[in-house]
Design a protein that fits this description.
11 strands; elongated; 301 residues; nine-stranded mixed β-sheet; alpha/beta
């Protein structure tokens, strides 16, 4: 295992390369010039080759030094970015939420103005996930996922359930408005979401019974699925949350004769330990209050 470089020397190296002078690097880092020279020597011994050459009163990088500076600069930038990533843990009004992407995009973001009006100083850090994670392992405040975490240290509360609905463009909807189910399924091509290859749980049985359908495209991003439906490309089966905004603007329409289906229960989870700040508990309660009118399955269903 290779030993690590002298870490303090990396700062001296970057400053000297950027400023073209050991003296100015020493001034910036509040060190003596001899200390900078000693650290650069340490780093050159570690790399096994010279990184600078003298030019008058200043210094310039060697070819090896120029190449190594790219690595050091990228590493220092990464460390600085890491500091930014952990910043919310020090802010009393921050709330770190891990949640399902469809919930974030279709339910939470359209309600952000209401959340901001309720909590003027809230700083929401939103990370989308596809499965439950242990709160004590990732140190987040709230998790919204499609399965509860089975852990006595985690409080899991049923939040709401999403449903899949059939959507299409307004022109297609007008043309098919009076076509009954299941005949309507053969009157326009279907747009598939890659994560749901059966389109709807009842469709394979209809196909086995002889229903003819046309498959137009398969898309891995449900947002593009909504966009394709808006462009009259066919009928898509998507989360109501993904479709809600486009429905409200009249860009797409539903085909109510095509039965939808539940996409399962979402759970709201937090640690049983006291919240990191009062705003975390307040946002937890706000989520429960605002989800009260949504579909909610009974535990175990």
């Amino acid at each position: 295992m290779r030993r690590h470089p002298p870490l303090q020397a990396l700062l001296a190296f970057e400053a000297s390369a950027r400023l073209g002078s050991f003296t100015r690097a020493a001034q910036e880092l509040a060190l003596t010039q001899s200390a900078i020279s000693h650290q650069i020597l340490q780093l050159e011994q570690w790399t096994g080759q010279p990184l600078f050459r003298r030019i008058g009163r200043g210094v310039a990088l060697t070819a090896a030094g120029t190449l190594y500076l790219q690595t050091v600069s990228a590493a220092l930038t990464l460390l600085a970015d890491g500091r930014d990533r952990i910043e919310p843990y020090s802010k009393p009004d921050s709330v770190i939420v891990f949640c399902a992407a469809r919930f974030a995009s279709g339910w939470l973001l359209p309600r952000m103005r209401e959340l901001e009006q309720r909590f003027a100083d809230v700083d929401l850090w939103l990370v989308t996930i596809d499965k439950s994670l242990e709160i004590d392992q990732i140190d987040v405040d709230l998790i919204i996922s499609d399965s509860p975490i089975r852990n006595p240290e985690i409080e899991s509360t049923p939040l709401m359930a999403d449903e899949a609905i059939a959507i299409c463009g307004p022109q297609t909807a007008a043309r098919l408005a009076h076509v009954p189910f299941p005949e309507v399924m053969s009157m326009a091509p279907l747009l598939y979401h890659e994560a749901r290859p059966e389109w709807a749980p009842w469709l394979p049985e209809l196909r086995r019974a002889g229903l003819a359908i046309k498959r137009r495209m398969t898309i891995d991003d449900p947002h593009w699925l909504v966009a394709a439906a808006r462009e009259e490309a066919g009928i898509a089966m998507v989360s109501r949350w993904y479709a809600e905004a486009a429905l409200a603007r009249g860009e797409i329409a539903t085909l109510p004769q095509i039965p939808g289906f539940t996409l399962g229960q979402l759970w709201l989870m937090r640690s049983v330990q006291p919240a990191r700040s009062p705003v975390v508990a307040a946002v937890h309660d706000w989520l429960l209050q605002n989800a009260a009118g949504e579909i909610c399955l009974k535990p175990g269903s």
